[in-house]
Design goal:
It is a single chain. The chain is α/β, with parallel strands linked by helices and 298 residues long. The chain has 3 domains: 8-91, Arc Repressor Mutant, subunit A (Orthogonal Bundle); 97-168 and 273-297, Periplasmic binding protein-like II (D-Maltodextrin-Binding Protein, domain 2, 3-Layer(aba) Sandwich); 170-270, D-Maltodextrin-Binding Protein, domain 2, CATH 3.40.190. Helices cover 43% and strands 21% of the residues. The strands form 4 sheets. Strands 4-3-5-13-6 form a 5-stranded mixed beta sheet, sandwiched between helices. Helix 1 packs across helix 4 (64-91), helix 2 (23-30) packs across helix 3 (34-48) and helix 5 packs antiparallel against helix 10. The longest helix has 28 residues, at 64-91. It comes from Zhongshania arctica. Belongs to the LysR transcriptional regulatory family. InterPro entries: LysR_HTH_N, LysR_subst-bd, WH-like_DNA-bd_sf, WH_DNA-bd_sf. Residues 6-63 form the HTH lysR-type domain.
Length: 298
């Protein structure tokens, strides 16, 4: 097979000429003789049997064929630079990819703010985020599907080799929509039992597939309506389908407007939740990320 004449070196030469506008300025940037730059272009033109540049006054301007090679070539240059950075990071203990499961109850704005700052400092690390509910995060961590879980509820599974950091506890509030036909019973403590005996519970599916699934909050006795995540649960309760516990920070606006009404239950749970990863994971990227998450959310 004939050797491909389009090398990284010649792509860098074309890029410099196009950006600087002349062979002489490109040679200066690349610390080469102008004759060496001219020879590299001439050789490529001969091998491909095309013209790459044409003169317009004092500037060297790409022909359509030359423009095609440069546009595609710049993508190759970016890819090779990215590859070199990845290899360097991996050799020095920095991962190229981190998988994260974040609990559906969490405040996504705070979580993604930490990720944004992390990626500004480590732009070559790829992040893959999935949503988890209840035991689903712990199961994903145990099975190696993710490297890090954020906000998974306690207790922390024992003898699994996990390192866990407590997060700020979530204030879960049992609520009903003001548009619900039974909302009138939520106003008085003496009629609350009537409400609880008749109303449908909105429950979020545990994303665990093999572990014993669980639910949190109100009893699941009676009529049930299942959803996949907290966003769906909020929407279902606001639509008047039923009642359930929701994190206060997600629904404060609806509480203030009166759209959602708190239920006057004697005990309101405060959910214990954790940032966790396997102790055996020694990656420097994971360590830096968990430190940022712990500082912001712990």
């Amino acid at each position: 097979m004939a050797r491909n004449p389009i090398t990284i070196d010649v792509l860098e030469t074309l890029d410099a000429i196009e950006r600087r506008g002349s062979f002489a300025k490109a040679a200066e940037e690349m610390n080469k003789a102008t004759s060496a730059v001219s020879y590299a272009v001439q050789k490529l033109e001969e091998q491909l049997d095309i013209t790459l540049f044409q003169r317009q006054g004092r500037r060297s301007v790409l022909t359509p064929a030359g423009r095609l090679i440069l546009v595609e070539g710049r993508e190759i240059l970016q890819t090779t630079a990215h590859l070199a950075n990845k290899a360097k990071e991996l050799a020095t203990g920095w991962e190229t990819h981190i998988n994260i499961a974040v609990e559906s109850l969490q405040s996504y704005s705070s979580f993604f703010a930490v990720l944004s700052e992390f990626l500004r400092e480590h732009p070559t690390i790829e992040i893959d985020v999935r949503e988890s509910v209840l035991n689903g995060g712990w199961e994903a961590l145990e099975q190696g599907q993710v490297d890090l879980i954020v906000g998974s509820p306690g207790p922390v599974p024992l003898q699994k080799g996990y390192r866990a950091i407590p997060m700020k506890r979530l204030d879960l509030l049992p609520v009903i929509a003001s548009c619900h036909e039974l909302a009138v019973f939520a106003a008085k403590p003496e009629t609350l039992e009537v409400l609880l005996s008749k109303v449908r519970r909105i429950i979020t599916h545990d994303t665990s597939m093999t572990s014993v699934t669980r639910s949190a909050g109100l009893s699941s006795d009676g009529k049930i309506f299942y959803v996949q995540n907290i966003d769906q649960k909020v929407a279902a309760i606001r639509a008047g389908i039923g009642i359930g516990h929701l994190p206060r920070q997600r629904i404060q606006a609806q509480l203030d407007s009166g759209e959602l009404i708190p239920l006057g239950l004697a005990v309101v749970p405060v959910l214990e939740n954790f940032i966790a990863w396997k102790i055996s994971n020694k990656g420097r990227g994971l360590r830096a990320l968990t430190q940022g998450l712990a500082a912001a959310l712990g």
